[in-house]
Write a structure and sequence with these properties.
This protein is mainly beta. About 10% of the residues lie in helices and about 55% in strands. The protein folds into two domains: about 80 residues, Immunoglobulin-like; about 80 residues, Immunoglobulin-like (Sandwich).
């Protein structure tokens, strides 16, 4: 075989290899699973190449199907999955479409709610209502400052339940600032 024929044969083989590699490139289809912060919900985000039926399965750590549905996809979808009532642990979310199976593992853990604080100035002059919903055993500290940032009141509560308290600050001139913090360091500040 002469050099020219060898060169042409090599080009044909390389062109075939490039074509084969091009066919094996990953498609634009994809799966992502994200947790919704502060809740027991995971969002399944799917992007496909075209309209298709997509099979969605959720497996527990023993590889048992605990949820299954078929979704008509118009090129993609976002599907929330609520895990409340399920055992804590690892789960596998699997999607099957025309291009094959895609899966992602998620770790479902208890939601830490922390404290919810609400402070309202009442219509009656100088009165403020503070309500705190918090976890059992959590310490909550309330500090109230006057307009000059002087501390005029402080209170620490470590009781086992939520509470509400009415503050009468009629004698305070100017604005007041409430600072509420919990044992995990979360702070809410409100100035009136």
């Amino acid at each position: 075989m002469n050099t020219k024929s060898l060169y042409i044969a090599a080009l044909i083989v390389m062109a075939g290899a490039v074509t084969a590699v091009g066919k094996d490139e990953p498609r634009n289809a994809g799966l992502a699973v994200v947790s919704v912060k502060g809740s027991e919900i995971f969002k399944v985000i799917y992007k496909g190449e075209s309209s298709a039926r997509v099979k969605l399965n959720v497996y527990n750590s023993s590889s048992q199907v605990i949820f299954s549905e078929t979704v008509n996809s118009n090129g993609g979808f976002i599907r929330p999955l609520n895990f409340s009532g399920l055992s804590f642990g690892e789960y596998t979310i699997e999607l099957t479409d025309a291009s094959g199976k895609k899966s992602e593992k998620v770790n479902y853990q208890p939601v830490k709610t922390g404290s919810n604080v609400h402070i309202t100035k009442l219509a009656e002059g100088g009165k403020y209502l503070l309500s705190v919903a918090h976890n059992e055993g959590e310490t909550v500290t309330v500090k109230i400052f006057d307009e000059a940032s002087n501390l005029i009141f402080t209170d620490t509560r470590s009781d086992a339940g939520d509470f509400a308290k009415l503050y009468s600050l009629k004698n305070v001139v100017g604005s007041v600032t409430f600072e509420v913090s919990n044992s995990s360091g979360r702070i809410k500040t409100a100035t009136f």
